[in-house]
Every structure is written in structure tokens, then in C-alpha cells.
Amino acid sequence: GPLIGVLALQGAVAEHAAALQASGAAVRIVRRPAELDGLDGLVVPGGESTAMARIAAPVKMFEAVREHREAGLAVFGTCAGLILLAESVADAQALEGFERIRGLDVVVRRNAYGSQLNSFTTELPVQGIGEPDRPLEAVFIRAPVIEEIRSADVEVIAEAQGHPVAVRQGRLLAASFHPELTSDYRLHQYFVGLATS
Ligand code: GLN
Questions:
Q1: Pair type for strands 3-7 and 145-149
Q2: Closest approach atom of ligand 1 to CA 11
């Protein structure tokens, strides 16, 4: 079966590994660039994008992920992982001077759901993941807002509160929520399918 890496700099690593295994993938925990070799796909988990950027810098991890992405590696970024995949971060001060993976033609704003909505759960219809009548339970934790889509190649597969919250662009998939925190793994299954195609 496919081999999917989970970037393990910081954040929700174990939950993604379990979700991927339940979706039929073999999983490799990835901490250094050499561990990207031979992967079909890579998950960049949620957590704290600024912390991940600091930990990644000394080993040039994001430069390495970017090179593999440009060579066709499928990448799934969730929450902080979406921030790291975005071409543009609206409030980039905290990430200034740090590499990101980039490649997804969207503009995101960190922690932008407002204090009352910092964390919330919603029943989210998602296109293309099967069982259209059964929404995904989506958990948002200090999530980034996708403010703008900058390419016609970006397909919005889910929207909540007037913003896209799950998007796909070629072999890139991103969600502003945490699909690894529930036991409904349809988005992981979708990614495993994308990585193998
Ligand atoms: N607020 C975090 C950040 O800016 C993202 C939160 C998350 O991944 N749950 O990186």
C-alpha cells in the first residue's frame, strides 16, 4: 500500500498516524529531510506554525518538503499545516524570516476566527469524500481563515461561516480544521487516494 509520512516537528502527530493507518496507508514519522525519500504523501499536522518553523529551520526541513512537493509529493496540511502550505500569510510578522512549504495559492490569516469562535465544532458537508448526506464533524482550534483563493486551480471542497475550510490544488490538500481528532477518517482516505493516483 501507499507510504505516507507525518511531519513530526510538533503538533498532532500520533492522531494523524492512526488516521492514516486506519485508511490503509503505511506510515513513516518524518523528522529529517532524508526521511522524505520514497514517500507517496506527507501530512503536515496542526499545532503551532511558528514553533514548527523554528524547529524546521536548522535542518532546512521546509526547503526539503518544498523540493519534494515540486517533484510531485502529495501534501496534506491541516490547520498550522495549512498555514505552512499557503503561498501567502496575511499577518506574517511572526513567521517572517522563516521558510514555509508554500505551493497552495491561497491567502490565510492566523487565529482569525475571533475570540468567541477560537475553538468550535461544526457539521461540515465536504465534496468528494463519499456519503454526501453525512457531514464530517470538523473541529476548529485557533484555526486560520482562508481569506482569498488566488488560482482557478484551487478547488474549494468545504465551506463554513462564509470561508473555504478545505481546499485541493493538484496534489495538495488542506483543511483549516483537525480531521484527525474524530474517528471519521474520510478526509484521510481521500488524501491516501490522492497520494496514490
Ligand atoms: N493557531 C495556530 C497557528 O497559528 C494553528 C492552530 C492549530 O493548528 N490548531 O499556527
A1: unpaired
A2: 8
